[in-house]
Amino acid sequence: MNLDAVLLIETVNFAAEKHRNQRRKDEERTPYINHPIGVARILSHEGGVTDIEVLQAALLHDTVEDTDTSLAELEEKFGLTVARIVQEVTDDKSLPKQERKRQQVEHASHCSRQAKLVKLADKLYNLRDLNRSTPLGWTAERVQEYFVWASEVVKGLKGTNSSLEAKLEELFRQRGVHLAT
């Protein structure tokens, strides 16, 4: 087995352990691990991304934010670059939700290219998921507001991966959300 495959299997296993008791907020309450795996798959299959550290960061992107994982733990297990990418895409949960959302919009254009790739795939996965199944307790208006907010984040990520950006633009167009340049 080649080294990249070993690294990816180790990363998937770590993420699965960390997210093992979590569920998505959809009606089916799908296992949360489907999300980071799906984000990594979007990067590799749809975005043409082969950078192993970006794929690892995609698999780990919610571990610090949503589990007991620390950045130091990620750095020790997966290296400085992977930990840095995860840090760039991690919200500060000590802040109110609206402030976290504002900061995502504000910081998007200042992220590294690697973090921008993870953010693009994460938004693409989440928007597709919203189209597939509305989370429990969400109204149609809240879903639409999420699309509008996500378009603001994606504006700051433009110029990173034309394939992923085109897929996002199509989702926004279907919702009547204009993605300004």
Structure explained in plain terms:
By secondary structure, this protein is mainly α. It is globular. The mean pLDDT is about 95. The protein has 10 helices and no strands.
Indicate the mean pLDDT: 96
Question: Which stretches are low in confidence, meaning pLDDT under 50 for 5 or more residues running?
Answer: none
Give the overall shape, derived from the CA principal axes.
Answer: globular
Which bin fits the share of residues in helices? 55-70%
Order of helices and strands: HHHHHHHHHH
Rg from alpha-carbon coordinates? 16 Å
The number of distinct helices, counting runs of at least 4 residues, comes to 10
Distance between the termini: 44 Å
Helix/strand structural class: mainly alpha
Please state roughly what percent of the residues sit in beta strands, choosing from under 5%, 5-15%, 15-25%, 25-35%, 35-45% or over 45%. under 5%
The biggest sheet, with number of strands, parallel, antiparallel or mixed sense and barrel status, is: none
Report the strand count. 0
Which short descriptors sum up this protein?
mainly alpha; 181 residues; 10 helices
What can be said about this structure in brief?
This protein is an all-alpha fold. The chain has helices spanning 3-18, 34-46, 52-60, 63-66, 71-78, 80-88, 97-107, 113-132, 140-155, 162-174.
